[in-house]
Each structure stands twice: as structure tokens, then as C-alpha cells.
Write a structure and sequence with these properties.
5-stranded mixed sheet; globular; mainly beta; two-stranded antiparallel sheet
């Protein structure tokens, strides 16, 4: 039982699954899903769709009509308190 003045430690919960695509399939999926933002970290471009994180290492920022944001970090886990 928690008492006043104590804090709960941050817990890690699993987030969505990651699915890797080749360039052509990723661009086709972007066309289907129509994400408003595509994220970029290192060589990876990714976006979330239907509970999954779709990603590829084979695209460039210029391949997309959507806004591409530079992400600071990419992780499989969501931190919550």
C-alpha cells in the first residue's frame, strides 16, 4: 500500500509491434495508410498504423509528400508512471 510522500517507479509496458518493409512495399503502405507525419531516425523512416510501427531503411526524405520529422530516439517500449 502506498503512503503519502512515496512515488511509484516508472514501469515499462510493451508498445506496438514493428514491421520492416522494403522500399516499394513501404511506399505502397504509405499511400494506403496516408500518415500525416513520417518519422526519421538514422537510416530508418517509420510511422504508426493500426497498432503497428511500419519502418524501412531504404527510403529518403524526398520519397514522401508528407512531413518528415527527425526523431531523437526510437524504442519498442512506452514509459509510464
Amino acid at each position: 500500500m502506498a503512503t503519502a510522500g512515496t512515488t511509484a517507479a516508472a514501469s515499462v509496458t510493451a508498445s506496438s509491434y514493428r514491421v520492416k518493409f522494403r522500399r516499394a512495399e513501404f511506399l505502397e503502405l504509405v499511400n494506403i495508410a496516408k500518415p500525416s507525419i513520417i518519422y526519421h531516425r538514422g537510416r530508418m523512416h517509420f510511422f504508426a498504423y493500426d497498432g503497428f510501427v511500419m519502418y524501412t531503411f531504404e527510403c529518403r526524405d524526398e520519397d514522401f509528400g508528407q512531413k518528415v520529422l527527425k526523431a531523437i530516439e526510437f524504442s519498442n517500449y512506452q514509459w509510464s508512471e
